[in-house]
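Known limitations

Files may contain more than one protein. Parsers should not assume a single record per file. Below, a two-record file is shown to illustrate correct handling: read the sequence, read the token line, then continue until end of file.
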Amino acid sequence: MEYKVYTPCTTLAKQVRYYWSLESNPDDAPHSRERIFPDGCIELIFNYRDLFIKFENNVPSHEQHRTMLYGQLKTFIEVEATGRVGLFSVRFTPAGLQPFINRDVGALTSRELNINELWGTEGNLLEQQMLACTGNEERVALIEIFLINKLKTIAFDNSHVEYCVDAMTQSGGSITIDVLAKQLCIGKRQLERKFIAAVGLTPKMLARIIRFQNALQLIEKRDFTSFTGVAHEGGFYDQAHFIKDFKEFTGLNPKQYFSENLEMVKHFSFDE
């Protein structure tokens, strides 16, 4: 697989973490089923090659949309490529999607939507243009024109939630909503409502996902001597807490994780 990352322009830096592409090569091994874990971000994915199949309860459920938006995930999903892989994705920051749709992002959580459900005929036209591009640099230019135009037409102040997300990320998920509400001089419940509407998760859930992703990065880098060390470095109270969250988000215990072929999950982690 060939994986590439593209940096967004300055205008979109608060909303888009980055763009990425993933393409298979003719000599790649046959595709296996992949688990995608919660990461705190929302993806808008354009599939310009063969479609993917989603699995539910270990059996094939449905063929995924040509263009799809994944709402926030609270647990893993399983997908499998049916042939050649060609994906281009907009990876929004945790609160980055809302300014482009001007609606409650919480209503999209755990859902898979086609682009028509987001932007109607505008979305259909965008899909046609994106799939017709001859390369991913062209796709970056095209999607940025679309998003910048949306940003200009939808006036939305997300500053409180963006502040919270930044603080939670920098603290490794340890800062609480109580502390953040005091810092922003806003009521805790009001801030929680804003947060869920913009991010699609409660502050507590996003903090759990940040800690999980921190631990996942340590495991991916083999930067640990024991799972107790991973739990401590990842910001968990103890090893039992770490294993509980790891199982909830992945369906696996940490030891099982090493035996799985999880190629795609490397492209869905909170920090690149």
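...continuing to the second record:
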Amino acid sequence: MSRVRIGIDLGGTKTEIAALSADGEVLLRRREPTARGDYRGAIAALGRMVRELEADLGVAGTVGVATPGAVSRLTGRMKNANSTWLNDRPLQQDLERELARPVRISNDANCFALSEAVDGAARGARVVFGVILGTGVGAGIVVDGKVLEGPNGIAGEWGHNPLPLPCVADTPLRACYCGRSGCIERYLSGPAWMAEYVAEHGIELNCAEIVAQADSGVCQIAGASLDRYLDRLARALAGVVNLLDPDVIVLGGGLSNISCLYEQIPERWGRYVFSDSILTRLVPPLYGDSSGVRGAAWLWNGVDG
């Protein structure tokens, strides 16, 4: 067997590891609870998972890791991780020491975008913008099959840009944990949408229930809530099209399962995009939750082994 590409998705609650063949076949996949808050324990667990997987396959592999943060270009340590126990830790260096080999690390949204660009829903596209709409909001950019990270390591940090063209319904601008106000994440994440619904109507529904109520046509409140969400997402993605002009935008995260997004957003974003035509495609993911670990493995795409 030729050398495999091993991907690790280091999540807040679970850690997944998978080995891919050169053509993207999953050779082996495992997951276990993340050692939350125990940095040294997490390093040891990742090393053990890699060694056990390689022993079972009988072959060594390259290792890529999807993380909930980014590596600082200034310090070489983790930053911006919502798993805060990783922040200011030399994760890459410690993993390389543990595994005695080079390790590639990238943000989980970058890995999602890479997975869908290499052999997923955006396969064959030159410029891909991969969006995470879930408990948080993030994104990654892939150009010619490679993650674009930028000199600051923050390319694609879409969720912590201001929501474009705020209207009365968006004000007062919502405070964000990042220290700013009006961030896209504070309007388009699942928790933000649900919190707004509860605050306005005193009824606790999850996002899927809001959509179902709206689709039924008998609940005007839910219909108005969905309409606001669609308009906000159209504005936010129009800003991406104006700035990056990607070939494909792939939606991921739990809210990517809302089927009406793929028809409604392209119908709405035209009023905000500075063009007489919009050829950008908006598509659901092919691999969904598996894209993190697949994209981590593909961080070594193009490297012979």
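Parsers that stop after the first record will miss the second one. For reference, the second record is described as follows. The first strand starts at residue 4 and ends at 10.
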